[in-house]
Design goal:
The protein has one domain. With 268 residues, the chain is mainly α. The termini are far apart.
């Protein structure tokens, strides 16, 4: 009992992460992005976590939101299972490699890498909105993943290094390359991201890289937000959700690059 009280005393100062997490998860699961792309800058700049802690806490948080959203999308029958399962199997080895790299690579380099990745995601999103090329297919075959099997693998490595990459590579692949209906593309992306997250979270728990005093609020918040995401996806313009996300991640990525390039230059 004393341990619980001491833990709550430490954790209670982070209560504001509950409403923040609800909003982030609703936007993320409603637009096809991974919530880690927003959580990592918050963890690094607001809560002053290390990169491995930010990745670990972000992944266990994202896992709860994605799992909650998966249930919502299963009810709507929007998931392309035939292509989701092969993508999950390909993504997992990439995540394991990326998590190992995150533990041995200099933090300044990781932050700049994160900045480059998220700026790339933001620019890709802006491009897709301007072009307005949305898919309309419903139904994919398993063998269609073969020519692009490297995409979820690279996305998994990126997620392991920076907590961003799986959703941000798979969603454009489904929507732009396979021309899948945008709602089904989002639902399938969420499934791959969520299932791969279980593996990543298991490793982070083993390596003790999760800040539970923060995660206790963010996990609850994203469970709630994960149920709101599929609803938001139905009632709000997908383009608007993408713009909100893209603007934030572009600015967050730019700040990380500007702040950490001097640290990298000082290494030489």
């Amino acid at each position: 009992m004393e341990f619980i009280l001491d833990f709550w005393t430490i954790a209670s100062v982070n209560w504001y992460m509950l409403p923040v997490s609800i909003v982030v998860a609703a936007l993320a699961t409603g637009s096809g992005f991974g919530g880690g792309i927003i959580f990592l800058p918050i963890f690094v700049y607001v809560l002053e976590m290390t990169i491995p802690q930010s990745i670990g806490t972000g992944m266990v948080t994202e896992l709860c939101g994605m799992t909650s959203a998966i249930i919502g999308y299963m009810r709507q029958r929007q998931i392309e299972y035939k292509i989701a399962f092969p993508m999950i199997l390909i993504t997992i080895p990439g995540i394991i490699i990326g998590l190992h790299m995150a533990m041995i690579v200099n933090e300044a380099i990781l932050k700049v890498l994160f900045g480059v990745i998220v700026i790339g995601c933001a620019l890709w999103t802006f491009t897709s909105i301007v072009e307005r090329k949305y898919g309309d297919r419903e139904g994919l075959h398993t063998e269609e993943i073969y020519p692009y099997s490297w995409v979820p693998f690279i996305g998994g490595i990126s997620s392991g290094i920076s907590s961003v990459g799986t959703a941000e590579t798979i969603f454009p692949l489904l929507e732009r390359v396979y021309k899948l209906n945008v709602h089904r593309a989002i639902a399938t992306t969420i499934v791959v991201e969520g299932m791969a997250g279980w593996i990543a979270t298991s490793i982070n728990i083993w390596e003790k890289q999760i800040r539970w005093d923060v995660a206790i609020f963010t996990m609850v918040g994203v469970i709630i937000g994960g149920q709101l995401g599929p609803i938001l996806n139905r009632v709000a313009p997908v383009a608007l959700l993408k713009i909100i996300f893209a603007v934030f991640v572009f600015l967050a990525g730019l700040k990380m690059i500007i702040d950490n390039i001097p640290n990298i230059l000082n290494m030489f």
